[in-house]
Amino acid sequence: MVRWSKPLVFLACLGPLAGLGWRAYSGSLGANPIERITHTTGDWTLIFLLITLSITPVRKLARQPWLVRYRRMLGLFAFFYVVLHFLIYLVLDKSFSMHDIWADVLKRRFITVGFAGFLMLIPLAVTSTAGWIRRLGGKRWQALHRLIYASAIAGVIHYLWLVKADKRKPLVYAVVLSVLLAYRLVVWLRPKPRAAKVQLPAAAEVTEVSTN
Amino acid sequence: MLLKKSADIKSSEITPKNLYLNRRRFLAGTAIAGAAALAGLELGEAVSPSTVAHANTKIEGLQKSPFSTTEKITPYKDVTTYNNYYEFSTDKDGPSRLAGNFKTRPWNVTIDGLVQKKQVLDVDSIIKMAPAEERIYRHRCVEGWSIVVPWVGFSLSELIKRAQPTSKAKFVEFTTLLDMKQMPGQRRDVLQWPYVEGLRMDEAMHPLALLCFGMYGEALPNQDGAPLRLVVPWKYGFKSAKAIVRIRFTDSQPRNTWNISAPTEYGFYSNVNPNVDHPRWSQAKERRLGEFFKRPTLMFNGYDQVASLYSGMDLKKNF
Ligand code: HEM
User: Fold this and answer.
1) Are residues B68 and B132 in the same domain?
2) For labelling alongside A185, which of A206, B84, B116, B257 has CA 20 to 30 A away?
3) Residues B16 and B142 in one domain
């Protein structure tokens, strides 16, 4: 099962997309299908970002080092869903008009932060391979990948700024993200034993690279 | 304490490697199950969509109206499962799930303020005041979507004339029912309850402003504002108050609920206007439910005949 777990998690991560596909096929996307798809892909982008961010705390606190095997895949799924999220907006909201999109990015602050969150994920997706870790070196790679914190914060603010009056759902995300970030803060503030210096990862241990 | 000699430990009692591996397997399994459960949520919801059938009493003898559009009418199912009705829920599909048992009879409407005839009227006597018409109107939500609905009712002016407002009356205020037991959304203060809306007297007297008690040839479904609502087609949807229990005539401009909630985002007038954006999103286009791409939004939602009500007014300031 350990061997099969990765493909299985991979399939599970496609669940939200399959759900949308099924709804589209059976005509049950509701009265406003495009809004439904935008919201679903936006929600799952944020959920995958938060799951990715919870890997390190969970594996440390529960002493389950193997969890890190799924981290890259989960992060890439966050990227996958935000690409879909953005494509819907590009094609169906703005009909490919770069001019309109740019106007939106400049004018609407919820789009501004969402767009920033999206842009930040691009270098992370690009450098998620073993080759890039080697090329950048563990430390620099880690530093770069801390962008995920900023991206998740941008995602939550994006959501907070787009709701009309009911802030319950974005606040749930905000609370979860705060807990995950607080963990990093605690770890960072705690005096470190010298032995715990960041070890440079060999290419072979790519998936074990540790970012806190 | 019992000490076993090492020789006593049967080899089968030493945690075998495969069991140790099992633990990992179990944990991996848990992770997969967790992910699958999340994914399943999405799928499970997808395969059990809710359906709504026509269930309300037919309204006979409807008159046609010259105000009706010939545009394609939005399917009944969409108009009854996609609702902004925060008294029930802030989810679009919430009202259709939660309004099923809402009691619309007996129902009284208080008419007071600056009128000759202060009175409490039964909703059925209001419905009989004037012949029922079918009016097919465009309906544009401030969120950027629109529908075309065959409403049933008559001009609000019919009721106002009968109430005989005094010469001091400059505005009309509409109040929605306050009843936390029946309207679970009111248990949370996402908005100030009860919901209040208002119109200037000349807006309220305009023949397009509809006092509405039905749609699609039937009594209004609960999630669409039964038993009595307003439909003001040239304004954003939230101006069209639902489940009205009070109509009050005043000399000062009422504060409407959304304006109280976010004064910089929602004004008193809230006329549909493609040139005045909501501070957070554009109003230039809208998505007509059922259409793929967005279409341009029309000034006054295409009801140009109301333009004279606002001549000389700066509509950017009076949004
Ligand atoms: C890290 C990046 C992003 C995340 C985490 C994210 C997440 C979300 C979430 C959670 C929602 C609300 C879903 C719901 O209501 O259930 C949403 C809505 C939306 N997002 Fe994003 N988003 C991101 C980037 C973007 C980008 C780049 C754009 C477009 C340029 C965008 C455009 C929108 C739009 C148009 C909506 C719907 C707004 C509405 O219905 O009023 N998002 N997003």
Assistant:
1) yes
2) A206
3) no
